[in-house]
Structure formats: C-alpha cells, structure tokens
Amino acid sequence: MTTIHVGNSSPPPSSPGPGLIPHACSASPDLFLKIFPIDFFFLLLFLVCHRVNKQTMNATTAILRRNALRTLRTSSAPLSRFQPISIRNYSASTNYEYILVSEPRPGVGQITLNRPKALNALCTPLITELNSALRDFQTSSTISAILLTGSERAFAAGADIKEMAPLTFSEAYQNSFIESWSDLTTQLKKPLIAAVSGHALGGGCELALMADILYCTATANFGQPEIKLGTIPGAGGSQRLTRAVGKAKAMELILTGKSFSGEEAEKWGVAARVFKSHEELIEGALKTAETIAGYSKVAVQAAKEVVNKSQDLGLRDGVEYERRVFHALFGSQDQKIGMKAFAEKKKADWSHS
Ligand code: CO8
Q1: Which residue windows are transmembrane per the record (predicted)?
Q2: At what angle do helices 333-343 and 297-309 cross, to 10 degrees?
C-alpha cells in the first residue's frame, strides 16, 4: 500500500495580489528609484514600509494557510460545503489517529478503520477523521472509487457507548449529534464500497449500510442491538435496513436486537457478495473498485446518482429523472468516446468529461 497525497499542490502565493492588503507603500520600487535624487528621505521611508508590508503579507499568508489546513483536518461540515482547495499537498495518513488512508490500486482510495482496542467503536474523533478522508478523496483528481473497511475482527462494533452514556437530550439535540454521519452518503459523489468482516453492529451496521456496495465475509456479524441499550438505531438503520430486507425482517431484527450473519446479509440483499475469508473479501472489493475506477468518471457519477434517486422517488418520477440524466450524458465527451470505441472495437480512452 502506498500513502496517498491528494489534491492540487500549488504553493500558496508568496505575496498577495494588488488590492489584497492596500498600503500606501505598495508602489513599484523603480518609480521611487527615479525620484531618488529628488527626495532621499521619501525613498528611505518607502523601503522601510515596503519591507514591513512584505513581512506582514508573508506572515498573513502563512497564518491563512495554517488555518485552512487545520479547518480541513478537523471540520465535520457537510461535503457540499467543501470546495477544492489548492493547499492540499500533504500525506493524508500521517496525522490520523483512528484511520489509515492509502491508495492500494490506481484510482482506488482505501480507508481502514483503525481503533483495534475498542473494536473500531465509532467515537466522534474517528468520524471526524473519516469525514475528512472522504472529503479528500472526493476532491482528489486521481481517486475514482473508495473502499471502506475495518479489521478482520471488526468493521465497527457500533457508536462509542462510553462516549454516548453521559450525553443528555439537550446536548444531543442542540449539537445535532451524529447528523454529520449521513453526509457521508448524501454528499459523496464517488462510489463507496464497504468491505465488512467481523462485527458490524449498531452504528457500524448503519455505516456499512450507507455504502453504495456492501461486501462481507460469510461470518460477518451484523445487527442493530440498540434496543438492548435502551435506545434505537440513530444513523439510518431503521430506514436503510428496512428498505434492504423489508419491514417484517427489519422489525424483528430491530425489536429483538438479534444479529445476522454475512451469509444471511447476502441472501437478504443487504450485501452484494459474500466471501469465505478476510483476504478474499479485501481482494474482491479492491477488484470491484478498480473496475469502477476504469470507467468514465462522469458516467460513474451519473449512475450512482440515478440509483440513489430510486431510494427517494416514486417509480414514475425516478424513471423520468433517470431519462433526464441519460439525455444529459449525450452532452459528455465520454459518451462519444465510449460508443465510438465500441464501434471501432477499441478500448475506450476516457476523457472524464
Ligand atoms: N463502544 C465502546 N467500546 C466498545 C464498543 C462500543 N460500541 N464495542 C466494544 N467496545 C470495547 C469494549 O468495551 C472492550 O473494551 P475494554 O477492553 O476496554 O473493556 C473492547 O471494545 C473489546 O470488546 P469486548 O471485550 O466486549 O469483546 P468481545 O469479543 O467479548 O465482544 C462485542 C465483542 C460482541 C462486539 C461486544 O464488544 C459488544 O457487544 N459491543 C457493543 C455492541 C453494541 O451494542 N453496539 C451498538 C452500540 S449503540 C449504537 O451504535 C447506536 C447507534 C446510534 C447512531 C450512531 C451514534 C453515533
């Protein structure tokens, strides 16, 4: 696995453009050299002002850059609020405590939940890091598909119970506890594959259900055991699991807190595929991610968008929505490239536009 450097690497400007920091002493030194014989005092004054101004500007630029990086790493704001930022030349994995970030295959970004002592229990800092890594992959020009996984023993054993235990209603309500979790799926435009081995319970099960494609091992342990803790699923479990397995099964699972296996997950349509071992799971998920990364990014984004719309719209509106996006793709270069390549029996060389 190689560590990934994402985003553009344009250095910050060494000095701001005209008008950014207006100053009486910002005129060209040449001009002042011309008037040097006339008034030496003013030249001296200019040089002092110019130097002070430049130092101030450099310091300001450095502060802005530092603050931008800090914001990028800690914010849990929705993805939509994040525009590509030019200051993104850093190793994504070095500063994370609870996740590992890598690019195991061309075009594939991998996030591995890495809090082994707590079976990857989803504490707030872990979710903040996960959001940050997903945002980086979303804005990266080289990443086309994302793999999210945990360890062999646990994908994630739920939200961090010890963190939640003392939380009051007003704290949870006023701070919109876990609201940013759902941004992962609603804002991410690149395909997300969850590879689940071991426990995927409570919030862990919900996180896996947020992915676009779910793969698991036969022995994976899914469940919504919140009822045993005196609460209910809070990150979409009652909605996504019900859509996946139907009301009767979802009701039974959520009301009893009973677990279900990876094999059952595949049989019930929760998982797209099931694998015998952890190694096969990761390899299978990477292959799928690599296949997706080999297609036109425009078409992949559109495909994900229309499938997701089916979850929100009625059939008639959904079909109409799909047709609109289908029509729109005739405006893309990749539709021309793909169809021409087929007719000429060649491999398509996508432009991603
Ligand atoms: N939160 C915090 N710590 C956890 C969690 C968790 N969810 N799960 C496991 N751990 C910790 C244990 O406390 C233990 O720590 P320590 O060694 O310090 O005592 C360590 O992980 C290992 O766990 P076990 O010793 O219990 O390991 P076992 O192999 O015996 O059991 C189980 C594994 C079955 C997974 C067991 O740990 C378990 O039942 N965990 C709790 C599962 C659960 O109830 N999950 C649902 C949590 S509630 C939830 O997710 C609500 C979602 C609401 C929306 C999202 C909100 C953020």
Answers
A1: none
A2: 110
**How far apart are alpha carbons 284 and 213 in whole angstroms?**
12
Cα 264 to ligand 1 centroid, rounded to whole Å: 22
Q: Would you say the CB of residue 202 lies under 6 angstroms from ligand 1? A: yes
Ramachandran bin of 260, using left for φ above 0, alpha for ψ from -120 to 50, beta for the remaining angles: beta
**Residue 184 token pair:** 């992962």
Residue nearest to atom 38 of ligand 1 (CA): 157
Spacing, Cα 198 to ligand 1 middle (Å): 12
Q: Is the CB of 123 under 6 A from ligand 1?
A: no
What pTM was estimated for this model as a whole? 0.78
Sheet with 221-223, side-by-side order of all strands: 154-156, 199-201, 221-223, 260-261
For residue 82, what are the contacts with CB-CB under 8 A and spacing of at least 6? 135, 138, 139
What is the spatial distance between Cα 125 and Cα 115, in angstroms, rounded to a whole number? 11
Give me the active site residues, please: 159, 203, 206, 226
Q: With a 6 A CB cut-off, is 103 part of the ligand 1 pocket?
A: no
* Secondary structure letter of residue 195 according to DSSP: E
Q: What CA–CA distance (Å, rounded) separates 17 from 181?
A: 39
Give the C-alpha distances (Å, rounded to integers) separating 10 from 2, 15, 85.
Answer: 22, 14, 10
265-324 pLDDT tens trace: 999 999 999 999 999 999 999 999 999 999 999 999 999 999 999 999 999 999 999 999
236 CB near ligand 1 (under 6 Å): no
